[in-house]
Amino acid sequence: MAVSSTGTDIPKVLILGHSFVRRLRSDLHARFDERAAKNFDLHGTPEIFMHGVGGRTVPKLRKMDMGVITRISPDIVILDMGTNDLALAPPEVGGSDIEELVRSLVAEYSVRAVVLCQVTPRATNKGSNFNERAKLLNQCTRVVIEPIEQAICWTHRAFSFRMPPKKLQARKRALRTTDEGPSAQCCRRQSTRNSTLASRSTVVVAAEDDSSGIPPSNVPPTTVQQLDPELVQSIVSTVAAE
Predict the structure, then answer these.
(1) Which of 82, 210, 214, 215 is the one with CA 20 to 30 A from 239?
(2) Where are the domains of the chain?
(3) What contacts 122, CB < 8 A, 6 or more positions away?
(4) pTM value?
(5) Domain at 12-162+226-240: CATH code
(6) How many whole angstroms separate alpha carbon 101 and alpha carbon 103?
(7) 231 Cβ contact list (under 8 Å, min separation 6)
């Protein structure tokens, strides 16, 4: 998958998501580390935008934040979503919602490439099955995103789930036996079911106040940042390799 600008246009990259993106933007502006800079200490092209709102789920984002896509008209969207969805819906439902969002970005908003950042585990998981559900969501999104030529899943390797070697081998054998694994099959069924339901009804999501305290319609685009062309080429090469 190749991503390139047309004519003299400067490609635009939008980092879109929940509180992780909001805090990243805030930390960069606050220079939390001497190596941190609002422009990542990179210069050149393309333009970089950030938009993140605390508590965002995929349904909320689709209802309240798509105007950001319209205003910026990005060529590439780096999407960090899914963590908050796990508190409200099963992983296969969250995976299907993410698939629909990615397809909408490509088909309706002419986004050339979508990079989906997978959900990271939590260090403290006592009394919670969050990490187990996050694993299922990540497996699900890989299955439903794989057929979309303009999209890839990105794993934050430093935070990826670790599994004992024996358990990992057993899991691989189980997945080979079942082709995709039960959660992936379930996710495919959920995706098909959602597509059918979408043709019959409209789901209305109630708007809620966000921790940012800023009405979504008044959230301004982030100040343009600059990204080094060599890094862009590296991203494109990674996309092609995937």
Answers:
(1) 82
(2) 12-162+226-240
(3) 128, 130, 131
(4) 0.62
(5) 3.40.50.1110
(6) 5
(7) 42
